[in-house]
Design brief:
It is a single chain. The chain has eleven helices and eight strands. The protein is α/β, with parallel strands linked by helices.
Length: 317
């Protein structure tokens, strides 16, 4: 009798293990593997419809500016041998200052073109990388900012060594915000002067848990733990170690955190958690009635002014 019970329990456990293994592989394919079309939890349709006519016109103008620009295509090799691609816009003012604009999940450098004109008008050269696993860059997985933080050390070195940059700003949206936040915890050259993070998440595991709950109604445990193990095997990192909160504790640079109050993709609570953990001079701007990365689109004029004031203060201008 005991033997039969043991065999039955072993069979059930084996089925559970196999089920979790297949589920973990499925969620790896949905969230981490390159090139998968995935539906994210979306915000209510009435969010982000508050822009004035003036701000709408300004936003359309900055988008047209980027679309009309020719960009130089440049590449570097990552620390683990990937060819990484970026677009570069040279500013005729030759001020030796540059901004690196970090895009979001399953996007590419073009998506940050809406910010390029703002910085170009302030005399900045513009660098728009495609993150590993995105766009023209190599890589078969998404790093969610964790391995990307080391890639950004390479982009920073390129700007200093090849283009003689003396002042560098890092500015990211969503996954790109997490990328620059994670980069902030590394030992950075003195040429990096400040960081702007718009709608970044606290940790990759927490963000995927948020998505898992809203899309599938499932708890994080044990699915994300299994997915994390599979991610470690296939992509080289655990979901929990990819932490903006942990990295910003080591930050020493001026930091501007921007987050929409009504962000339902990356909850605004994460912005408070990051802000509370961050070292260095820091500022938190929670934007009323704004959803995920929509502050600039909703209030383009005020956004440009706030970002411009931060950058001027960082550079002593």
């Amino acid at each position: 009798m005991k033997r039969k019970l043991f065999i039955s329990l072993a069979g059930v456990m084996a089925l559970v293990f196999i089920g979790l293994f297949f589920a973990g592989n499925y969620f790896y394919g949905e969230g981490i593997k390159r090139g998968t079309e995935v539906e994210l939890h979306q915000e209510s349709a009435n969010i982000n419809s508050v822009a004035s006519a003036e701000d709408q016109a300004l936003f359309e103008e900055v988008n047209r500016w980027f679309e009309s620009r020719e960009t130089e295509q440049i590449k570097i090799t990552s620390h683990d041998g990937l060819s990484l691609a970026a677009q570069f816009i040279n500013n005729e003012s030759n001020n030796q200052k540059a901004v690196i604009l970090a895009h979001g999940f399953r996007s590419n450098g073009d998506d940050m073109g809406k910010l390029a004109g703002l910085y170009y008008n302030k005399g900045f050269d513009i660098l728009l990388p495609d993150a590993r696993g995105h766009g023209e860059s190599e890589g078969d997985y998404i790093g969610y900012g964790w391995h990307d933080r080391l890639d950004y050390l390479g982009w920073i070195d390129l700007l200093i060594d090849k283009y003689n940059m003396e002042d560098i700003i890092l500015h990211g949206n969503s996954m790109g915000a997490a990328t620059v936040l994670m980069t902030s915890g590394e030992e950075l050259p003195e040429e990096v002067k400040g960081i702007i993070a718009d709608s970044g998440y606290s940790t990759v595991k927490d963000e995927l848990a948020h998505q898992l709950e809203h899309l599938y109604g499932l708890p994080a445990f044990p699915l994300l733990d299994v997915t994390s193990l599979i991610t470690k095997i296939r992509a080289g990192y655990m979901l929990g170690e990819a932490s903006s909160v942990k990295q910003v504790k080591n930050n020493t640079l001026p930091l501007l955190i921007i987050h929409g109050e009504d962000d339902d993709l990356v909850p605004a609570d994460m912005a408070y958690e990051i802000y509370d953990a961050a070292g260095g001079e820091k500022e938190l701007w929670i934007v009323p009635q704004a959803g995920h990365t929509k502050a600039m689109e909703n209030i383009t004029g005020e956004f440009s002014e706030r970002v411009g004031t931060f950058v001027d203060g960082v550079l002593g201008e």
